[in-house]
Write a structure and sequence with these properties.
The protein is of the alpha+beta class. It has a single domain, classed as Porin (Beta Barrel), CATH 2.40.160. The chain is built from five helices and 13 strands. A twelve-stranded antiparallel beta barrel has the order 1-2-3-4-5-6-7-9-10-11-12-13, surrounded by four helices. A hairpin with a 2-residue loop joins β11 and β12. The chain starts with a helix and ends with a helix. 42% of the residues are buried.
């Protein structure tokens, strides 16, 4: 619990002040802070204006449950980041967004080891993952992006393309990405075929699909000086919510399941990229979001194994307090 005692009292008051400065009340789901994208977190860019703050954990384990090593990295690391994510939608440039996301905190093994070994592995009846040397540093990552949103089907902006970067004590990565977000299959059928059956129109009011591709060039940092030269990442997801009122974007409640394939941030002992596959589950509620990601589809427990985040929508909380309702 040392992480909570150090991070929360220091960071939250600053973020609270920022929420009053920026103002506004659009619903939001924060962009994932680096390095979460290479641990399997949902990584789509924000379409709407946001200001969110929270706590993000990512765990790298040197060994699996049988004591096998992942690669040449000789330490386990639990990254505990207090995060702030700000997306601004520029009225002067239609469809253009910028994002700045910052994460920093003490790298300590205790909290993420408790969640992995004492919670998840006990519930699933798995062998605890052994821990040898542990990274104990203060780490940080900063990321930013420029995204153009377009209407592919219908009037709603559901397609995007953009450039971004991530840099800090772990690694450095410029990247490009493109995809679709909360795509209505009914709208796509109507645009492409001129018609959409009634059952498809009805289901599309509650089920949407997203997908993206991302290419990045990676350079080593203080924590991981030896990394893969590039990353090719694909992500696809299905989300369930009440999408009938397009004025509420994203919806107040939403459940999303995502699958990610990443050519890999890390390399093996020969210097070849280690491909990773992840599954992620996110629950968005009126004043924030909870998400967890895991490499369980790889049937392994070493390397970038899992993460979890809890974020709060400062704009909506500010609006709630301001309006007193």
């Amino acid at each position: 619990m040392l992480v909570c005692r150090v991070i929360i009292p220091t960071v939250i008051p600053v973020l609270w002040i920022l929420s009053f400065i920026v103002g506004g009340a659009d619903p939001a789901f924060a962009e994932s802070p680096a390095p979460s994208v290479h641990w399997g977190a949902i990584a789509y860019p924000d379409r709407d204006r946001t200001l969110t703050a929270g706590l993000t954990l990512n765990r790298f384990t040197e060994f699996d449950g049988e004591g096998k090593r992942y690669n040449a990295v000789r330490e386990t690391a639990g990254f505990n980041f207090a995060t702030l994510s700000w997306t601004e939608r520029w009225s002067r440039f239609q469809g253009w967004n910028t994002n700045l996301t910052v994460g920093a905190g003490p790298t300590q093994d205790g909290l993420s080891r408790f969640l992995q070994n004492d919670v998840v592995h006990k519930l699933r009846g798995l062998t605890p993952v052994p821990v040898g040397a542990k990274r104990e540093q203060t780490d940080f990552m900063i990321s930013g992006s420029l995204t153009k949103w377009v209407s592919l089907f219908g009037s709603r902006e559901d397609g995007f393309a953009g450039l971004g970067f991530a840099s800090g004590s772990l690694y450095h990565e410029p990247y490009a990405q493109a995809g679709v977000r909360r795509l209505s299959v009914a709208d796509a059928a109507q645009s492409l075929l001129g018609t959409a059956p009634t059952w498809l129109q009805t289901s599309s009011q509650f089920v949407r699909f997203s997908a993206m591709g991302r290419y990045g060039r990676i350079f080593g940092g203080s924590a991981y000086p030896t990394v893969a030269p590039r990353s090719i990442l694909g992500q696809a997801s299905v989300s369930v919510a009440d999408y009938r009122d397009e004025a509420i974007s994203p919806p107040r409640w939403e459940l999303e399941l995502a699958f990610t394939v990443d050519s890999g941030l890390f390399v093996d002992l020969k210097g070849d990229s280690l491909e990773e596959r992840f599954i992620s589950l996110a629950l968005r509620f009126p004043y924030g979001a909870f998400e967890t990601w895991n490499d369980l589809v790889n049937q392994k427990d070493y390397g970038p194994t899992f993460g979890v985040s809890l974020t709060f929508d400062l704009l909506r909380i500010h609006a709630r307090l301001r309006d007193g309702s």
